[in-house]
Fold this sequence. Notes:
By secondary structure, this protein is α/β, with parallel strands linked by helices.
Amino acid sequence: MRVLEYVEQHPxxxxxxxxxxxxxxxxxxxxxxxxxxxxxxTDYVKEAFLDCPFIEHIYRPGKTRMFGSNITNQxxxxxxxxxxxxxxxxxxxxxxxxxxxxTPPPVEEGLYIVIxxxxxxxxxxxxxxxxxxxxxxxxxxxKCRTIAVGSQEDFDRCPYxxxxxxxxxxxxxxxLSYIHxxxxxxxxxxxxxxxxxxxxxxxxALWKNTLKERCKNAGVNTEYAxxxxxxxxxRFLTKHLYI
Length: 243
């Protein structure tokens, strides 16, 4: 039977944008008593929601597109997940419908942090607006065991990430597993930063030219460094690793 209504993960609005939709999807699923059909256009985003209890994976468009992940980036005075929830449900933001991403079991026990320097858009202008540079990550790698995760494009752009104690290139499920088990995460404004927030893993977001309110995640353990990134990393690690 053909799906009538569906939600689309837009190919230009990937992991972080879709994570912002998840409170609304959870609400709609509970209200309708059914999983919400979602058409994923990006493989690695789909891999982050293979076990989602309120999403039904579909493989061709339904009759009516309800909305898509391109609804993000429209409000600067509050986080995207809050704006989307209130716009699409007509309800005041409710923290019960927090953001979601699959949390595969940790593949490794022990003391380590995850580092991420991602860029979903490879245009030089976009990258320059998001990339905090190598220095804060190098400080982290000198102070504790680090696992770098990201796409092949991320590692090509930031070859110093290969200097981490371990690195995960282009494997979303493994990246989520390491994030789930990490003592903390240090990341720029990228999709896996939002994944860490959805898991409530202690996270330091290294902001560059990011819009401060709109791009915040829903994680209660996320801190933000708007400047002096090196010092912020040092203080963050002292707090979370007791070094």
